[in-house]
Amino acid sequence: MKVVALALALAVAACSTPARDGVVLWHAYTGPERDALEAVVARWNADHGDAPVTLVAVPYDAFADKLTSAVPRGNGPDLFVYSHDRIGAWAAAGVIEPIELWVDDAVADRYAYDAIAAMAYQGSLWGLPLATKSLALYYRTDLVDAPPATTDDLFALAARWRGRGRYPLVYASGDLYGHAPWLHGFGGEVMSADGELHIASAPAAAALGFARRLVVAGVCPGDTAGALVATLFNEGKAAMAVSGPWFQGDIAAGVPWRVTTLPIVSETGRPAAPFLGAEGVLMSSRARDKAAAFAVMAFLAGDASAAERARRARQVVPNRAVYEQPDLGRDPVLRGFRDQLEHTVPMPAAPAMRMAWTPYRTALQAVLAGTAEPAPALVEVEREVRGYAEATR
């Protein structure tokens, strides 16, 4: 926490005029998010014709590898937009530039605490947050009068609906990201704040056993992929879905829905808490004019730009002042995700986190299928992740 506090004690200082040849910005946005970013950048370019921002869209699947390869060769962007979870690896590899030189303590007041804290790693601040993303609970108002307050309520719904061809809930159950709300709700974690692996714990095993009971009791189907989540929800075969802000675009026209916070885990009394992802704008260590690049960062992450992105792309922006504007402050969807942010766990930015996804998914699938027991499955996951981590040191 001292490391984060140090980073938060910084804020925006005076910025120099951008270089004449401008700033190159890579992103992987599509749809409304791309449209919103282009609109914001067009506003910058209208006022900085001698130093424009050039946007380059890179497919998401290739983004991280292309960036990691291009920056050391001096062929990458000056700035790029990405989630905070790669900060640890990119900082260690010298891909990104710390930005303390250009900030002072106004930043801590501008953004939600967890969002700016996610941009900090090992005593430095590496980016400015643009949006926060987490899971929350979508529910069909034609099928559910009120969302469940507890997980016991979910099991009660399943008992009433058994045999009717409908599930109370659907989510990406075979993926660690989808499972994380239960993991944290039972008091488990993937790793501690200092990067120590805590995969094979009793709370984590209890959460895995709970996920299996959801399937056995008919609360939700077995291992469910993202596309099937939307299909079941749209067809009325699932009354509720756990997903993120991006799910809004998958909901069919005419489906009545709302979004709210996830239920309390009845066994522990803790709220189900998904991972928090903070999407930010980061600076390449090879940026041609770093002060100029930071001027663009500050503009993109500023309050006016955030309000535009919230309206155009429905992004859950971390800027506190934005929600003082009546239309955004009263928006029920943004409110649902903002309320959920109070019960989230920032995704670890340590490099070892990247090694946990595939082994954890294998364990989840086996437990959900009834072919493995939670505790030994997690012991194997931790053994495998430790092996990967040690091999890369």
Question: Secondary-structure map with pairings?
Answer:
Elements lengths: L1 H7 L14 E5 L3 H17 L5 E5 L2 H11 L8 E5 L3 H6 L13 H5 L2 H6 L1 E2 L2 E2 L1 E7 L2 E5 L10 H11 L5 E4 L5 H10 L16 H15 L9 H9 L3 E6 L13 E4 L3 E2 L4 E2 L3 E9 L6 H11 L2 H11 L12 H4 L2 H9 L4 E2 L10 H12 L5 H19 L1
Parallel strand pairs: 1-2, 1-3, 8-9, 13-14
Antiparallel strand pairs: 3-13, 4-5, 6-13, 7-9, 7-10, 11-12
Helix pairs in contact: 2-12, 8-9, 15-16
* Estimated structural class: alpha/beta
Strand content: 15-25%
CATH topology of the largest domain: D-Maltodextrin-Binding Protein, domain 2
Number of helices: 16
CATH class of the largest domain: Alpha Beta
How many E-type strands? Answer: 14
The averaged pLDDT comes out at: 91
Can you tell me about this structure?
With 393 residues, the protein is an alpha/beta fold. The chain folds into two domains: 203 residues, D-Maltodextrin-Binding Protein, domain 2 (3-Layer(aba) Sandwich); 175 residues, 3-Layer(aba) Sandwich (D-Maltodextrin-Binding Protein, domain 2). It is built from 16 helices and 14 strands. The strands form four sheets. Strands 1, 2, 3, 6, 13 and 14 form a six-stranded mixed beta sheet that branches. A four-stranded mixed beta sheet has the order 8-9-7-10. Strands 4-5 form a two-stranded antiparallel ribbon. Helix 8 packs across helix 9 and helix 15 packs antiparallel against helix 16. 46% of the residues are buried. The N terminus is likely disordered.
